[in-house]
Amino acid sequence: MSAMALAPESPRTLVLEPTVHAPLLARRFLAGCFAEWGIEDDHLGRVVVCELVTNAWRHGEGPIVVRLYLEEGDGRPVVEVWDAGAGRPVVRPPDDGAVCGRGLVLVAGFARGCWGVRPLNEGGKAVWAKLPGAE
């Protein structure tokens, strides 16, 4: 008798109103999911989800959907943030005088370049980042 492969766990999902409170609620949600998964260090995940949710709140449209899951192949956590806005995120060149605009640079660095954006069938976009595994 062969071992049966278990189906991957469904993504954990949180739907947020696009308000100033959305980033805080997303950080709390991620911290809870990481604790359930036994991931002790959630610092990078909290920064990434906060940046992506903040972008969705400031530049997107409609409700913000946060999805968290562990990649089936390597077990690394993936953070996805959906919104209904048509605009796409842009990594801006460094500007030492700017007071904002560094969020995606941080996300790209923390995710070691493993991030992106994809259109959603129903309109809008999903911005995702795959976090490094335990070192």
TrEMBL record:
Membrane spanning residue stretches: none
Coiled-coil ranges from the UniProt annotation: none
Keywords (A to Z) from UniProt: Kinase, Serine/threonine-protein kinase, Transferase
InterPro entries xref list: Anti-sigma-factor_SerPK (IPR050267), HATPase_C_sf (IPR036890), HATPase_dom (IPR003594)
Domain Histidine kinase/HSP90-like ATPase: 26-129
MF (Gene Ontology): protein serine/threonine kinase activity
Keyword Transferase: yes
Span of the signal peptide: none
PANTHER family: ANTI-SIGMA-F FACTOR RSBW, ANTI-SIGMA-F FACTOR RSBW-RELATED
Official protein name in the record: Histidine kinase/HSP90-like ATPase domain-containing protein
